[in-house]
Amino acid sequence: MAGAATEATMPGSAGVPDLHGPAPKRQRYSGNRLLMILCLLLPLLGFMAVFYAAPFIYLTQESFRSWEGEDVAQVEPTLDYYIKTFTSSRTSRAFVRTFRISLISTIIALIICYPVALLLIRAGPKVRAGMLLVIFISLASSLIVRNYGWLVVLADQGPVNQLLVALGITKRGLRMVYSEGATIVALIHYIMPFVILPIYGSLLRIPDSYGEASVSLGAGPWMTLRKIIFPLSMPGVFGGTILSFAICMSAFVTPLMLGSPATAMMSQVAAEQLLVQQNFPKGSAIVVILTVSTFLVVVAYGVIVRRVMKVDV
Hints:
By secondary structure, the chain is mostly helical. The protein has 14 helices and 2 strands; from the N terminus they run ααββαααααααααααα.
């Protein structure tokens, strides 16, 4: 009896679990996993540090310098160009215009792309492969080529105006190019793959049994989509809309080709100060304001999604 009791109290015996044996193994496994994650992230972190963080830090430092002409700059930090940027009517209008165009483009792209992502889920293998091929080809095509295509399509004598005249909607062609509307159309076309693919990936992770259970409980297709599918696909919606909004906020080539000086966006104003006026502190201040404001919108959007939709994003 004494031998049996002694055996039962020994570490690792069947009666009492060994509390000290597995712990080092778990710690070693956790440490190895963390080291593996760091090794995998090291190239990305290095790339971001060299090509994003370092230039942004330099621009931030440059934005606090005062500039009195070419090659004449004072070392004392100043907020003059931040104040001038916020008080300038041209810059403030460009900022509001940039935010408006980006928001409208993102919302319209979401309205168009969510049904496309649903169609990708419901389509057969051949149709799905064809649709994905078209999306990837769109990603691979040159942005300048796309913009020239929209210049032709939206021209005064282009296909859209010819169709409007043929249908009797207008008597003569409308002025569509070099406008805010043309910029929005081209931006929507550009960001559509960036909205479709994250939503499609999120929808793929939703089991079919969820929709089937909703229908079996008496919910119609619309209620199932609104109450089940859309909330569960919110991580993809969040990722796609944030990515597309950031792309639109920093767009330069599209508004330059399809817009006009009256519809200039913040990136164009910054490029004018940096490349034409060579006022590097003011151009840097505009870039910093644009970057920080975009980041704040992303953070605010994430907080709203977490609190309203109760989704981890």
